Amino acid sequence: MDLVTALPETTARKLGLVIDLDICVGCHACVVNCKEWNTSGYGAPLADEDAYGDQPVGAWLNRIHTYEVKPDKGLAQIVHFPKSCLHCEDAPCVTVCPTGASFKRAEDGIVLVEEDWCIGCGLCAWACPYGAREMDPVEQVMKKCTLCVDRIYNENLPEVDREPACVATCPARARHFGDLADPESDVSKMVAERGGFDLMPEQGTKPVNQYLPPRPKTTGFDEPPADLVSLAEPAAGGFLGWLDRVLEKV
Amino acid sequence: MHPAYSVIFFTVTSGAGFGLFTMLGLAPLFGFAPTGAFGWTAFVLAYLLSVSGLVSSTFHLGHPERAWRALTQWRTSWLSREGVLAIATTGVAGLYAIGALFFDRAIIPLGLLTAILALITVYATSMIYGVLKTVQRWHQPLTPASYIAFSLAGGSVLMSALVALFSAERSPPLLVLALALLGGAWAIKLVWWRRGDTEPLKSTPASATGLGHLGRVRMLESPHTGTNYLMKEMVFTIARRHALKLRAIAGLAGGLMPALLILMASVVPGAGLILLIAFAVHIAGLFVERWLFFAEARHAVANYYDRG
What we know:
Number of strands of chain B: 1
Strand order of the largest sheet of chain A: 10-1-11
Radius of gyration of chain B: 21 Å
Largest sheet of chain B: none
CATH class of chain A: Alpha Beta
Shape of chain A: elongated
Helix content of chain A: 10-25%
Number of domains of chain A: 1
Strand content of chain B: under 5%
CATH class of chain B: Mainly Alpha
Strand content of chain A: 15-25%
Largest sheet of chain A: 3 strands, mixed
Number of helices of chain A: 8
Largest interface: A-B, 71 and 59 residues
CATH topology of chain B: Formate dehydrogenase/DMSO reductase fold
Distance between the termini of chain A: 92 Å
CATH topology of chain A: Alpha-Beta Plaits
Oligomer: heterodimer
Number of strands of chain A: 11
Helix content of chain B: 55-70%
Structural class of chain A: alpha+beta
CATH architecture of chain A: 2-Layer Sandwich
Order of helices and strands of chain B: HHHHHHHEHHH
CATH superfamily of chain B: Formate dehydrogenase/DMSO reductase domain
Shape of chain B: globular
Protein backbone atom coordinates (compact mmCIF):
# COMPACT_ATOMS: atom_id res chain seq x y z
CA MET A 1 0.00 0.00 0.00
CA ASP A 2 1.39 3.34 -1.00
CA LEU A 3 1.48 5.89 1.76
CA VAL A 4 0.33 8.92 -0.10
CA THR A 5 -0.85 11.45 2.47
CA ALA A 6 2.75 12.51 3.06
CA LEU A 7 3.16 15.79 1.19
CA PRO A 8 5.81 15.98 -1.55
CA GLU A 9 8.89 17.98 -0.48
CA THR A 10 8.58 20.13 -3.58
CA THR A 11 6.56 19.87 -6.73
CA ALA A 12 8.08 20.27 -10.20
CA ARG A 13 5.33 22.68 -11.16
CA LYS A 14 2.83 24.62 -9.09
CA LEU A 15 -0.28 24.80 -11.21
CA GLY A 16 -2.85 27.17 -9.86
CA LEU A 17 -5.09 30.15 -10.35
CA VAL A 18 -4.58 33.87 -10.06
CA ILE A 19 -7.83 35.66 -9.24
CA ASP A 20 -8.12 39.38 -9.87
CA LEU A 21 -10.38 40.97 -7.26
CA ASP A 22 -10.21 44.25 -9.15
CA ILE A 23 -11.90 42.74 -12.18
CA CYS A 24 -14.35 40.13 -10.87
CA VAL A 25 -17.91 41.38 -11.39
CA GLY A 26 -19.53 38.62 -9.35
CA CYS A 27 -21.52 37.13 -12.23
CA HIS A 28 -21.10 33.53 -10.97
CA ALA A 29 -20.42 32.24 -14.49
CA CYS A 30 -17.31 30.43 -13.20
CA VAL A 31 -19.41 28.83 -10.45
CA VAL A 32 -21.93 27.53 -12.95
CA ASN A 33 -19.38 26.31 -15.48
CA CYS A 34 -17.41 24.61 -12.71
CA LYS A 35 -20.52 22.76 -11.60
CA GLU A 36 -21.42 21.88 -15.18
CA TRP A 37 -18.00 20.48 -16.04
CA ASN A 38 -17.37 18.69 -12.79
CA THR A 39 -20.79 17.07 -12.57
CA SER A 40 -19.86 15.08 -15.64
CA GLY A 41 -16.08 14.91 -15.28
CA TYR A 42 -13.66 13.51 -12.70
CA GLY A 43 -15.31 11.33 -10.07
CA ALA A 44 -18.91 11.16 -8.95
CA PRO A 45 -21.42 13.75 -10.20
CA LEU A 46 -21.67 16.90 -8.09
CA ALA A 47 -25.04 16.31 -6.52
CA ASP A 48 -27.76 18.65 -5.31
CA GLU A 49 -30.58 17.81 -2.96
CA ASP A 50 -34.03 19.37 -3.30
CA ALA A 51 -32.68 21.24 -6.31
CA TYR A 52 -36.07 22.64 -7.30
CA GLY A 53 -37.60 22.75 -3.84
CA ASP A 54 -37.66 25.17 -0.93
CA GLN A 55 -34.30 24.25 0.56
CA PRO A 56 -31.88 23.40 -2.22
CA VAL A 57 -28.45 22.35 -1.03
CA GLY A 58 -25.59 20.80 -2.95
CA ALA A 59 -21.87 20.43 -3.46
CA TRP A 60 -20.02 23.19 -5.29
CA LEU A 61 -16.29 23.44 -5.84
CA ASN A 62 -16.25 27.16 -6.44
CA ARG A 63 -18.32 29.77 -4.65
CA ILE A 64 -18.41 33.54 -4.88
CA HIS A 65 -18.90 35.65 -1.79
CA THR A 66 -19.47 39.40 -1.95
CA TYR A 67 -17.89 41.58 0.70
CA GLU A 68 -18.41 45.13 1.81
CA VAL A 69 -15.15 46.79 2.83
CA LYS A 70 -15.71 49.95 4.81
CA PRO A 71 -12.78 52.23 5.59
CA ASP A 72 -12.85 54.45 8.70
CA LYS A 73 -13.45 57.44 6.46
CA GLY A 74 -15.04 57.47 3.07
CA LEU A 75 -17.21 55.15 1.08
CA ALA A 76 -17.58 51.40 1.37
CA GLN A 77 -16.23 49.29 -1.45
CA ILE A 78 -17.86 46.13 -2.79
CA VAL A 79 -15.54 43.24 -3.64
CA HIS A 80 -16.70 40.04 -5.33
CA PHE A 81 -14.63 37.17 -4.07
CA PRO A 82 -14.41 33.82 -5.88
CA LYS A 83 -13.14 31.02 -3.66
CA SER A 84 -12.08 27.50 -4.57
CA CYS A 85 -9.28 25.11 -3.56
CA LEU A 86 -5.94 26.92 -3.36
CA HIS A 87 -3.89 23.71 -3.90
CA CYS A 88 -1.71 24.60 -0.91
CA GLU A 89 1.94 23.54 -0.78
CA ASP A 90 1.49 22.62 2.86
CA ALA A 91 -2.01 21.23 2.46
CA PRO A 92 -3.41 20.32 5.90
CA CYS A 93 -6.34 18.51 4.28
CA VAL A 94 -3.98 15.89 2.84
CA THR A 95 -2.00 14.99 5.95
CA VAL A 96 -5.09 14.47 8.15
CA CYS A 97 -6.69 12.02 5.69
CA PRO A 98 -6.69 8.58 7.36
CA THR A 99 -7.19 6.56 4.18
CA GLY A 100 -4.80 7.97 1.60
CA ALA A 101 -7.75 9.17 -0.51
CA SER A 102 -6.39 12.72 -0.35
CA PHE A 103 -3.08 13.40 -2.02
CA LYS A 104 -0.97 16.14 -3.58
CA ARG A 105 0.67 15.33 -6.90
CA ALA A 106 4.45 15.74 -7.01
CA GLU A 107 4.46 16.55 -10.73
CA ASP A 108 2.14 19.58 -10.73
CA GLY A 109 1.03 20.19 -7.15
CA ILE A 110 -2.67 19.50 -7.76
CA VAL A 111 -4.52 18.27 -4.66
CA LEU A 112 -6.97 15.50 -5.51
CA VAL A 113 -9.31 12.98 -3.85
CA GLU A 114 -9.37 9.31 -4.87
CA GLU A 115 -13.09 8.97 -4.33
CA ASP A 116 -13.15 5.17 -4.22
CA TRP A 117 -10.93 5.30 -1.15
CA CYS A 118 -12.75 8.12 0.65
CA ILE A 119 -14.70 7.03 3.75
CA GLY A 120 -16.47 10.38 4.03
CA CYS A 121 -15.21 11.17 7.53
CA GLY A 122 -15.07 14.87 6.72
CA LEU A 123 -11.85 15.53 8.62
CA CYS A 124 -10.13 17.07 5.57
CA ALA A 125 -12.92 19.63 5.31
CA TRP A 126 -12.32 20.50 8.96
CA ALA A 127 -8.59 20.89 8.30
CA CYS A 128 -9.09 23.32 5.40
CA PRO A 129 -9.35 26.95 6.55
CA TYR A 130 -10.80 28.05 3.21
CA GLY A 131 -13.90 25.88 3.00
CA ALA A 132 -12.66 24.38 -0.24
CA ARG A 133 -13.92 20.85 0.37
CA GLU A 134 -17.55 19.83 0.42
CA MET A 135 -19.16 16.46 1.06
CA ASP A 136 -21.25 15.20 -1.82
CA PRO A 137 -24.75 14.83 -0.37
CA VAL A 138 -25.53 11.74 -2.47
CA GLU A 139 -22.25 9.90 -2.94
CA GLN A 140 -21.04 10.74 0.60
CA VAL A 141 -17.47 11.29 -0.58
CA MET A 142 -15.43 14.47 -0.37
CA LYS A 143 -15.47 16.71 -3.43
CA LYS A 144 -13.01 19.44 -4.26
CA CYS A 145 -11.60 21.48 -7.12
CA THR A 146 -9.42 19.30 -9.36
CA LEU A 147 -8.07 22.30 -11.23
CA CYS A 148 -9.97 20.57 -14.06
CA VAL A 149 -7.27 17.92 -14.28
CA ASP A 150 -9.48 16.25 -16.88
CA ARG A 151 -9.38 19.37 -19.09
CA ILE A 152 -5.88 20.76 -18.74
CA TYR A 153 -4.18 17.55 -19.91
CA ASN A 154 -7.02 16.41 -22.18
CA GLU A 155 -5.69 15.85 -25.68
CA ASN A 156 -9.20 15.34 -27.01
CA LEU A 157 -9.80 19.04 -26.47
CA PRO A 158 -8.38 21.78 -28.72
CA GLU A 159 -5.30 23.25 -27.06
CA VAL A 160 -7.03 26.56 -26.43
CA ASP A 161 -9.59 24.81 -24.20
CA ARG A 162 -7.02 23.06 -22.01
CA GLU A 163 -7.57 25.32 -19.05
CA PRO A 164 -9.90 25.05 -16.04
CA ALA A 165 -13.60 25.54 -16.78
CA CYS A 166 -13.83 28.57 -14.47
CA VAL A 167 -10.96 30.31 -16.27
CA ALA A 168 -12.28 29.46 -19.73
CA THR A 169 -15.72 30.87 -18.99
CA CYS A 170 -14.90 34.08 -17.10
CA PRO A 171 -16.34 36.91 -19.25
CA ALA A 172 -14.28 39.55 -17.44
CA ARG A 173 -10.99 37.62 -17.53
CA ALA A 174 -10.64 37.88 -13.79
CA ARG A 175 -9.27 34.35 -13.53
CA HIS A 176 -5.93 33.15 -14.86
CA PHE A 177 -4.37 29.70 -14.92
CA GLY A 178 -0.67 28.84 -15.05
CA ASP A 179 2.47 27.57 -13.38
CA LEU A 180 3.28 29.65 -10.31
CA ALA A 181 6.63 27.87 -9.86
CA ASP A 182 7.89 29.39 -13.10
CA PRO A 183 8.85 33.05 -12.47
CA GLU A 184 8.57 33.72 -16.22
CA SER A 185 4.96 32.54 -16.53
CA ASP A 186 2.23 35.10 -17.17
CA VAL A 187 0.60 34.32 -13.84
CA SER A 188 3.85 34.75 -11.89
CA LYS A 189 4.54 38.08 -13.59
CA MET A 190 1.00 39.23 -12.82
CA VAL A 191 1.45 38.31 -9.16
CA ALA A 192 4.78 40.18 -8.99
CA GLU A 193 3.40 43.26 -10.73
CA ARG A 194 0.13 43.58 -8.83
CA GLY A 195 1.21 42.42 -5.38
CA GLY A 196 -0.61 39.09 -5.36
CA PHE A 197 -1.25 37.74 -1.88
CA ASP A 198 -2.02 34.55 0.09
CA LEU A 199 -5.34 34.06 1.87
CA MET A 200 -4.90 33.53 5.63
CA PRO A 201 -1.09 33.31 5.57
CA GLU A 202 -1.20 32.83 9.36
CA GLN A 203 -2.61 29.34 8.80
CA GLY A 204 0.74 28.28 7.33
CA THR A 205 -0.80 26.47 4.37
CA LYS A 206 1.31 28.21 1.70
CA PRO A 207 -1.48 28.41 -0.90
CA VAL A 208 -0.48 28.19 -4.57
CA ASN A 209 -3.48 30.21 -5.79
CA GLN A 210 -2.92 33.95 -5.51
CA TYR A 211 -5.31 36.87 -5.26
CA LEU A 212 -4.70 40.27 -6.81
CA PRO A 213 -5.97 43.20 -4.71
CA PRO A 214 -8.47 45.77 -5.97
CA ARG A 215 -6.64 48.74 -7.48
CA PRO A 216 -6.86 52.04 -5.56
CA LYS A 217 -10.00 54.01 -6.34
CA THR A 218 -9.46 56.91 -8.74
CA THR A 219 -12.69 58.85 -8.15
CA GLY A 220 -12.73 61.97 -5.98
CA PHE A 221 -15.59 60.79 -3.81
CA ASP A 222 -14.75 60.52 -0.14
CA GLU A 223 -18.27 61.12 1.08
CA PRO A 224 -21.62 60.37 -0.53
CA PRO A 225 -22.78 63.44 -2.58
CA ALA A 226 -25.24 65.55 -0.58
CA ASP A 227 -27.64 66.06 -3.50
CA LEU A 228 -28.16 62.93 -5.61
CA VAL A 229 -30.72 64.73 -7.89
CA SER A 230 -28.09 67.20 -9.03
CA LEU A 231 -25.94 64.26 -10.14
CA ALA A 232 -28.73 62.82 -12.26
CA GLU A 233 -29.80 66.22 -13.65
CA PRO A 234 -26.81 68.49 -13.91
CA ALA A 235 -27.75 72.19 -14.10
CA ALA A 236 -27.53 73.36 -17.70
CA GLY A 237 -25.98 76.70 -18.58
CA GLY A 238 -26.06 78.96 -21.67
CA PHE A 239 -28.95 78.75 -24.14
CA LEU A 240 -30.18 75.42 -22.78
CA GLY A 241 -30.22 76.89 -19.29
CA TRP A 242 -32.24 79.86 -20.45
CA LEU A 243 -34.66 77.54 -22.30
CA ASP A 244 -34.96 75.39 -19.21
CA ARG A 245 -35.84 78.36 -17.02
CA VAL A 246 -38.36 79.74 -19.55
CA LEU A 247 -40.08 76.39 -19.99
CA GLU A 248 -40.23 76.03 -16.21
CA LYS A 249 -42.31 79.24 -16.06
CA VAL A 250 -44.65 78.44 -18.95
CA MET B 1 -18.38 23.10 14.73
CA HIS B 2 -21.39 20.85 14.33
CA PRO B 3 -21.62 18.58 17.40
CA ALA B 4 -22.30 15.14 15.87
CA TYR B 5 -23.70 12.80 18.52
CA SER B 6 -21.72 9.82 17.25
CA VAL B 7 -18.42 11.67 17.74
CA ILE B 8 -19.43 13.00 21.17
CA PHE B 9 -20.38 9.48 22.25
CA PHE B 10 -17.16 8.11 20.76
CA THR B 11 -14.79 10.49 22.51
CA VAL B 12 -16.51 10.24 25.91
CA THR B 13 -17.04 6.48 26.10
CA SER B 14 -13.78 5.42 24.48
CA GLY B 15 -11.99 7.90 26.76
CA ALA B 16 -13.58 6.26 29.82
CA GLY B 17 -12.91 2.77 28.44
CA PHE B 18 -9.22 3.43 27.83
CA GLY B 19 -9.04 5.16 31.22
CA LEU B 20 -10.31 1.95 32.80
CA PHE B 21 -7.78 -0.09 30.77
CA THR B 22 -5.05 2.18 32.18
CA MET B 23 -6.28 1.58 35.73
CA LEU B 24 -6.53 -2.17 35.14
CA GLY B 25 -3.03 -2.23 33.71
CA LEU B 26 -1.62 -0.43 36.74
CA ALA B 27 -3.84 -2.22 39.27
CA PRO B 28 -1.42 -5.04 40.22
CA LEU B 29 1.16 -2.44 41.24
CA PHE B 30 -1.32 -1.23 43.85
CA GLY B 31 -2.39 -4.63 45.04
CA PHE B 32 -5.59 -5.11 43.02
CA ALA B 33 -5.02 -7.95 40.59
CA PRO B 34 -7.89 -7.80 38.04
CA THR B 35 -8.78 -11.47 38.45
CA GLY B 36 -11.95 -13.44 39.14
CA ALA B 37 -15.40 -11.84 39.04
CA PHE B 38 -13.91 -8.39 39.57
CA GLY B 39 -11.54 -8.85 36.64
CA TRP B 40 -14.26 -10.21 34.36
CA THR B 41 -16.60 -7.31 35.08
CA ALA B 42 -13.86 -4.72 34.75
CA PHE B 43 -12.47 -6.05 31.46
CA VAL B 44 -15.94 -6.51 29.93
CA LEU B 45 -16.82 -2.93 30.90
CA ALA B 46 -13.54 -1.56 29.53
CA TYR B 47 -14.11 -3.38 26.23
CA LEU B 48 -17.76 -2.30 26.01
CA LEU B 49 -16.89 1.34 26.61
CA SER B 50 -13.90 1.51 24.27
CA VAL B 51 -15.28 -0.66 21.46
CA SER B 52 -18.78 0.85 21.46
CA GLY B 53 -17.13 4.25 21.23
CA LEU B 54 -15.01 3.15 18.29
CA VAL B 55 -17.98 1.54 16.53
CA SER B 56 -20.12 4.65 17.02
CA SER B 57 -17.38 6.75 15.48
CA THR B 58 -17.90 4.88 12.22
CA PHE B 59 -21.60 5.87 12.18
CA HIS B 60 -20.83 9.37 10.98
CA LEU B 61 -18.82 8.07 8.03
CA GLY B 62 -20.21 8.36 4.53
CA HIS B 63 -18.75 4.94 3.67
CA PRO B 64 -18.32 2.81 6.83
CA GLU B 65 -17.63 -0.25 4.64
CA ARG B 66 -14.31 1.30 3.67
CA ALA B 67 -13.35 2.10 7.29
CA TRP B 68 -10.44 -0.39 7.18
CA ARG B 69 -8.63 2.01 4.87
CA ALA B 70 -8.44 4.45 7.79
CA LEU B 71 -5.71 2.24 9.30
CA THR B 72 -3.25 2.90 6.46
CA GLN B 73 -2.11 6.53 6.84
CA TRP B 74 -0.65 6.41 10.36
CA ARG B 75 2.47 8.22 9.18
CA THR B 76 0.68 11.56 8.85
CA SER B 77 -2.89 11.21 10.13
CA TRP B 78 -3.85 11.24 13.81
CA LEU B 79 -7.22 9.69 12.94
CA SER B 80 -5.38 6.78 11.37
CA ARG B 81 -2.99 6.52 14.34
CA GLU B 82 -5.96 6.51 16.68
CA GLY B 83 -7.43 3.50 14.87
CA VAL B 84 -4.15 1.57 14.84
CA LEU B 85 -3.45 2.36 18.50
CA ALA B 86 -6.96 1.40 19.59
CA ILE B 87 -6.54 -2.00 17.96
CA ALA B 88 -3.07 -2.43 19.46
CA THR B 89 -4.31 -1.44 22.93
CA THR B 90 -7.34 -3.71 22.92
CA GLY B 91 -5.12 -6.50 21.57
CA VAL B 92 -2.46 -6.20 24.26
CA ALA B 93 -5.17 -5.71 26.89
CA GLY B 94 -6.68 -8.98 25.61
CA LEU B 95 -3.45 -10.87 26.29
CA TYR B 96 -3.24 -9.25 29.71
CA ALA B 97 -6.87 -10.19 30.41
CA ILE B 98 -6.34 -13.81 29.32
CA GLY B 99 -3.50 -14.12 31.85
CA ALA B 100 -5.54 -12.48 34.60
CA LEU B 101 -8.89 -14.18 33.97
CA PHE B 102 -7.94 -17.67 32.84
CA PHE B 103 -4.61 -18.24 34.59
CA ASP B 104 -5.22 -16.02 37.60
CA ARG B 105 -1.98 -14.22 36.89
CA ALA B 106 -1.82 -10.50 36.10
CA ILE B 107 1.38 -10.20 34.09
CA ILE B 108 2.80 -6.85 35.16
CA PRO B 109 4.77 -5.95 31.98
CA LEU B 110 1.65 -6.62 29.87
CA GLY B 111 -0.38 -4.49 32.28
CA LEU B 112 2.09 -1.64 32.01
CA LEU B 113 2.08 -1.89 28.23
CA THR B 114 -1.73 -1.85 28.25
CA ALA B 115 -1.73 1.28 30.41
CA ILE B 116 0.81 3.10 28.25
CA LEU B 117 -0.89 2.16 24.98
CA ALA B 118 -4.29 3.18 26.36
CA LEU B 119 -2.98 6.62 27.27
CA ILE B 120 -1.31 7.07 23.87
CA THR B 121 -4.60 6.07 22.22
CA VAL B 122 -6.45 8.80 24.10
CA TYR B 123 -3.67 11.20 23.15
CA ALA B 124 -4.17 10.26 19.49
CA THR B 125 -7.94 10.80 19.81
CA SER B 126 -7.35 14.28 21.18
CA MET B 127 -4.81 15.10 18.48
CA ILE B 128 -7.40 14.45 15.76
CA TYR B 129 -8.78 17.79 16.99
CA GLY B 130 -5.68 19.32 18.56
CA VAL B 131 -3.76 19.25 15.27
CA LEU B 132 -6.32 21.40 13.45
CA LYS B 133 -5.02 24.96 13.15
CA THR B 134 -8.38 25.90 11.66
CA VAL B 135 -10.04 25.66 15.08
CA GLN B 136 -7.98 27.89 17.32
CA ARG B 137 -9.76 26.79 20.50
CA TRP B 138 -8.67 23.19 19.85
CA HIS B 139 -5.16 23.94 18.64
CA GLN B 140 -3.46 24.14 22.03
CA PRO B 141 -1.42 21.68 24.14
CA LEU B 142 -4.12 21.63 26.81
CA THR B 143 -6.49 19.85 24.40
CA PRO B 144 -4.66 16.50 24.69
CA ALA B 145 -4.01 17.22 28.37
CA SER B 146 -7.72 17.58 29.09
CA TYR B 147 -8.68 14.48 27.09
CA ILE B 148 -6.11 12.37 28.94
CA ALA B 149 -7.06 13.87 32.31
CA PHE B 150 -10.78 13.16 31.77
CA SER B 151 -9.99 9.66 30.58
CA LEU B 152 -7.98 8.94 33.74
CA ALA B 153 -10.58 10.60 35.97
CA GLY B 154 -13.44 8.54 34.50
CA GLY B 155 -11.35 5.37 34.63
CA SER B 156 -10.41 5.90 38.26
CA VAL B 157 -13.99 6.60 39.39
CA LEU B 158 -15.21 3.45 37.65
CA MET B 159 -12.28 1.45 39.02
CA SER B 160 -12.98 2.58 42.59
CA ALA B 161 -16.65 1.65 42.13
CA LEU B 162 -15.75 -1.85 40.89
CA VAL B 163 -13.22 -2.41 43.66
CA ALA B 164 -15.80 -1.35 46.26
CA LEU B 165 -18.49 -3.54 44.70
CA PHE B 166 -16.37 -6.68 44.55
CA SER B 167 -14.10 -6.44 47.57
CA ALA B 168 -16.86 -5.24 49.91
CA GLU B 169 -14.45 -2.74 51.37
CA ARG B 170 -13.47 0.56 49.86
CA SER B 171 -9.95 1.51 49.00
CA PRO B 172 -9.14 4.92 50.47
CA PRO B 173 -6.05 5.48 48.24
CA LEU B 174 -8.18 4.78 45.16
CA LEU B 175 -10.83 7.25 46.29
CA VAL B 176 -8.19 9.92 46.88
CA LEU B 177 -6.75 9.20 43.44
CA ALA B 178 -10.19 9.53 41.82
CA LEU B 179 -10.80 12.84 43.61
CA ALA B 180 -7.38 14.18 42.63
CA LEU B 181 -7.81 13.16 38.98
CA LEU B 182 -11.29 14.70 38.82
CA GLY B 183 -9.97 17.94 40.32
CA GLY B 184 -6.97 17.98 38.00
CA ALA B 185 -9.06 17.32 34.90
CA TRP B 186 -11.47 20.16 35.67
CA ALA B 187 -8.63 22.53 36.52
CA ILE B 188 -7.14 21.87 33.08
CA LYS B 189 -10.56 22.31 31.48
CA LEU B 190 -11.11 25.66 33.19
CA VAL B 191 -7.77 26.98 31.92
CA TRP B 192 -8.59 25.53 28.47
CA TRP B 193 -11.90 27.38 28.42
CA ARG B 194 -10.28 30.59 29.60
CA ARG B 195 -7.60 30.46 26.91
CA GLY B 196 -10.17 29.79 24.23
CA ASP B 197 -12.28 32.72 25.44
CA THR B 198 -9.52 35.29 25.79
CA GLU B 199 -6.94 34.53 23.11
CA PRO B 200 -7.36 36.97 20.20
CA LEU B 201 -8.36 35.21 16.97
CA LYS B 202 -5.45 34.71 14.58
CA SER B 203 -7.65 34.43 11.49
CA THR B 204 -10.19 37.16 10.84
CA PRO B 205 -12.38 38.27 7.94
CA ALA B 206 -9.53 40.70 7.16
CA SER B 207 -6.90 37.96 6.82
CA ALA B 208 -9.34 35.55 5.17
CA THR B 209 -10.03 37.97 2.33
CA GLY B 210 -6.73 39.86 2.39
CA LEU B 211 -8.80 43.05 2.19
CA GLY B 212 -8.25 44.27 5.74
CA HIS B 213 -5.94 47.07 4.62
CA LEU B 214 -8.88 48.67 2.79
CA GLY B 215 -11.24 48.76 5.75
CA ARG B 216 -13.57 46.64 7.84
CA VAL B 217 -14.62 43.52 5.94
CA ARG B 218 -18.07 41.94 6.21
CA MET B 219 -20.00 39.57 4.00
CA LEU B 220 -22.67 41.35 2.01
CA GLU B 221 -23.92 38.48 -0.14
CA SER B 222 -23.46 34.80 0.61
CA PRO B 223 -22.48 32.52 -2.29
CA HIS B 224 -25.94 30.97 -2.49
CA THR B 225 -29.33 31.87 -1.08
CA GLY B 226 -29.55 28.57 0.80
CA THR B 227 -27.30 26.87 3.26
CA ASN B 228 -24.44 24.52 2.43
CA TYR B 229 -22.25 21.75 3.85
CA LEU B 230 -19.65 24.20 5.13
CA MET B 231 -22.19 26.27 7.02
CA LYS B 232 -23.92 23.24 8.53
CA GLU B 233 -20.68 21.52 9.48
CA MET B 234 -18.45 24.40 10.50
CA VAL B 235 -20.39 27.61 11.02
CA PHE B 236 -22.51 26.24 13.89
CA THR B 237 -23.38 28.98 16.37
CA ILE B 238 -26.47 27.84 18.25
CA ALA B 239 -24.67 26.92 21.47
CA ARG B 240 -22.99 30.22 22.14
CA ARG B 241 -26.06 31.81 23.75
CA HIS B 242 -26.31 29.14 26.42
CA ALA B 243 -22.62 28.33 26.66
CA LEU B 244 -22.14 29.60 30.20
CA LYS B 245 -25.13 27.73 31.61
CA LEU B 246 -24.07 24.56 29.83
CA ARG B 247 -20.53 24.90 31.17
CA ALA B 248 -21.95 25.14 34.69
CA ILE B 249 -24.07 22.03 34.08
CA ALA B 250 -21.05 20.17 32.70
CA GLY B 251 -18.90 21.12 35.68
CA LEU B 252 -21.59 20.23 38.23
CA ALA B 253 -22.39 16.84 36.75
CA GLY B 254 -18.95 16.04 35.44
CA GLY B 255 -16.93 17.20 38.45
CA LEU B 256 -18.61 18.53 41.56
CA MET B 257 -21.38 15.94 42.01
CA PRO B 258 -19.11 12.92 41.44
CA ALA B 259 -16.62 14.44 43.88
CA LEU B 260 -19.30 14.84 46.55
CA LEU B 261 -20.51 11.29 45.91
CA ILE B 262 -16.95 9.99 46.31
CA LEU B 263 -16.65 11.83 49.63
CA MET B 264 -20.00 10.36 50.65
CA ALA B 265 -18.85 6.88 49.62
CA SER B 266 -15.84 7.19 51.90
CA VAL B 267 -18.02 7.46 55.01
CA VAL B 268 -21.39 5.76 54.46
CA PRO B 269 -22.06 2.09 53.66
CA GLY B 270 -22.94 1.01 50.12
CA ALA B 271 -19.86 2.65 48.63
CA GLY B 272 -19.96 0.51 45.47
CA LEU B 273 -23.39 1.69 44.39
CA ILE B 274 -22.67 5.32 45.29
CA LEU B 275 -19.45 5.24 43.26
CA LEU B 276 -21.25 3.66 40.33
CA ILE B 277 -23.74 6.54 40.43
CA ALA B 278 -20.78 8.95 40.64
CA PHE B 279 -19.41 7.43 37.43
CA ALA B 280 -22.77 7.68 35.64
CA VAL B 281 -23.21 11.32 36.65
CA HIS B 282 -19.62 12.07 35.61
CA ILE B 283 -20.20 10.59 32.16
CA ALA B 284 -23.44 12.56 31.76
CA GLY B 285 -21.51 15.73 32.59
CA LEU B 286 -18.82 14.82 30.08
CA PHE B 287 -21.43 14.45 27.34
CA VAL B 288 -22.32 18.11 27.95
CA GLU B 289 -18.62 19.06 28.15
CA ARG B 290 -17.91 17.29 24.85
CA TRP B 291 -20.99 18.77 23.17
CA LEU B 292 -19.64 22.21 24.07
CA PHE B 293 -16.17 21.20 22.85
CA PHE B 294 -17.65 21.03 19.36
CA ALA B 295 -20.48 23.53 19.54
CA GLU B 296 -18.35 26.35 20.95
CA ALA B 297 -15.48 25.81 18.52
CA ARG B 298 -15.17 28.48 15.86
CA HIS B 299 -13.72 27.32 12.55
CA ALA B 300 -11.62 29.65 10.39
CA VAL B 301 -14.05 29.27 7.49
CA ALA B 302 -16.62 31.19 9.56
CA ASN B 303 -14.59 34.28 8.64
CA TYR B 304 -15.87 34.00 5.09
CA TYR B 305 -19.48 33.94 6.31
CA ASP B 306 -19.13 36.81 8.81
CA ARG B 307 -21.90 39.36 8.29
CA GLY B 308 -20.20 41.71 10.76
